[in-house]
Amino acid sequence: MSSDSLSSAEEDVENEQSVGLLSNVMEARAEHLKTRNYRSLYSFTTALGIGALVMILSWLIRYRKGFAWNWDPELQFNWHPLLMTTGLLFLYAQSILIYRTGRNASKKRLKIFHAVLHASAFVLAVIGLKAVFDSHNYASPPKPNLYSLHSWFGLVTVIMFTGQVTVALLPPEITLKYFLYPGLSRSLRQAVLPVHTVTGIATFTLALIAALTGITEKTIWT
Amino acid sequence: MSSDSLSSAEEDVENEQSVGLLSNVMEARAEHLKTRNYRSLYSFTTALGIGALVMILSWLIRYRKGFAWNWDPELQFNWHPLLMTTGLLFLYAQSILIYRTGRNASKKRLKIFHAVLHASAFVLAVIGLKAVFDSHNYASPPKPNLYSLHSWFGLVTVIMFTGQVTVALLPPEITLKYFLYPGLSRSLRQAVLPVHTVTGIATFTLALIAALTGITEKTIWT
């Protein structure tokens, strides 16, 4: 390469730098607007979510006689809609959005939040499932399990959710090294991420369908 | 710019061309694989869709006593699940996918197919809605309309779908010039397209939820 072409290359770099500076300013503005839009949308949908949970809670307390455990199967059932929607819709949604909501926090902290929110959702879902199976099995006469569209959508949802949690947790030494903490296998994490997010959003959609078919069932049956 | 830097620019262009050739071959291979994957997935989901329609049809004929119009409101209802799922799920899905399914056809032809499939879905939906309202109003005693979760999800779906069709059709001279045929306002079409696709997919998801809550209602009520 001749020195002439080098100097012209330097000119190009200078031009690029001034263009780059302008485009940086424009990008920062665009980023700022996108963040502000996200915050408005996030606040709005989270308020809707809390509103839905409050309405479910007041429905169960005021119109469905509140809560109990397996000494009263009819009231034990009431834990089911409350815990499933709190876990597999509200906490699940918050957990999915955490990387965007807390975009200025460290990646490691966000991953821990994501894991804690998902683990809480999982625990609520397990108690919620126990509640519905108990409420069928301890009823007199006992009610059959898993014969409706809702129950199968719900079962598939829980199996897929458990699968995602299992992949994240087992074996723990690999998870801690490779997924939860920034470890060696960047390529592995890069390959798994899109599968994890697509499966996660599909599972969330299934949870939404399960909730709406479930509420439809309950409003007709009572 | 000096002539030396020009010749170095020519060299760059040559290098880019040979790199470009290689990347063209790789891109063509990747495209081919993606197309083949799409075709498999499309065939599989379309077969599932036809299977679902056949199951709905045999359910309505064998277990729900078949079809009639408003001289027999109970059988008139049966048009509702058949026409809504055929129109707002099967044809709607085919119409959304047409640009990918027929990717080698001309854009103009695909737009006409998209319009015809969506128009057919709209006509089936209108007849399906007439069927359900008639089946309530002509029943003795008449049944109330629009008091369930399903009915309101369905209503919102149909309103959003009608909105999309209306935007595409009114005023017709503008549509024909600017949307259906390649016309002058490329920038307008570019601005509308992402809104149209996101709204369309949201409406499709609502149609799916409406169908599943509707089937849940019908299996409990009969």
From TrEMBL, chains A, B:
Subcellular compartments: Membrane
Membrane topology: Multi-pass membrane protein
Entry keyword Cell membrane: no
One Gene Ontology term, aspect cellular component: membrane
Molecular function per GO: metal ion binding; oxidoreductase activity
Cofactor(s) annotated in UniProt: heme b
Transmembrane parts of this sequence: 41-61, 81-100, 112-132, 152-170, 191-215
Keyword entries, A-Z: Electron transport, Heme, Iron, Membrane, Metal-binding, Transmembrane, Transmembrane helix, Transport
Pfam families hit by this protein: Cytochrom_B561 (PF03188)
Domain Cytochrome b561: 44-222
Cross-referenced PANTHER family: CYTOCHROME B561-RELATED, LD36721P
The protein, known as: Cytochrome b561
Species of provenance: Asbolus verrucosus (Desert ironclad beetle)
